[in-house]
Amino acid sequence: MAKMPWEKYATVSGKVGWKTKKSVRAKAPGKAPRDKLLEAVDLQISYLDKKDVGKKAWFKPHPDGDVVKCQVRYGNTPLKLAGDATYLEMSIEALSQFLGDIRDAVAAGKFDGQLDEISARMSARRTKG
């Protein structure tokens, strides 16, 4: 996988004590996976100004400091951001830049392979007997 722009300020998550919660499933029938993910990224960007977004946010501040753990999800499936890593850690200040970079990468089709694979698995589950 080619180096992504966020790799200069985000690192693969390695902190202990994070708890994972399931996110809200992307529900937009008839839309392309890329369009669904772009809408989801825009929603996450809108959460930056809100104080409490609960389980809906892809990012979670660590209780011990100003480090944020973030992951990008399509439905309930996390996307690989750096190698096989699905979580990245960054400063709170870098979070808005990270989400902007993610939006640009999604719009450019950098995640299309993963989105197609996830969509195929979701379709197979829905059509299974």
Topology readout:
Blueprint: E1 11-12, H1 33-47, E2 59-61, E3 67-70, E4 73-74, E5 77-78, E6 88-91, H2 95-107, H3 112-127
Antiparallel strand pairs: 1-6, 2-3, 3-6, 4-5
Helix pairs in contact: 1-2
Which stretches are low in confidence, meaning pLDDT under 50 for 5 or more residues running?
none
Rough outline: globular
Assign a percent range to the helix content: 25-40%
Distance, first to last CA: 36 Å
Strand order of the largest sheet: 1-6-3-2
What fraction of residues sit in β-strands? 5-15%
Mean pLDDT score: 82
Radius of gyration, taken over Cα atoms and rounded to an integer in Å = 15 Å
Care to count the β-strands?
Answer: 6
Q: Characterize the biggest β-sheet.
A: 4 strands, antiparallel
Write down the secondary-structure element order.
EHEEEEEHH
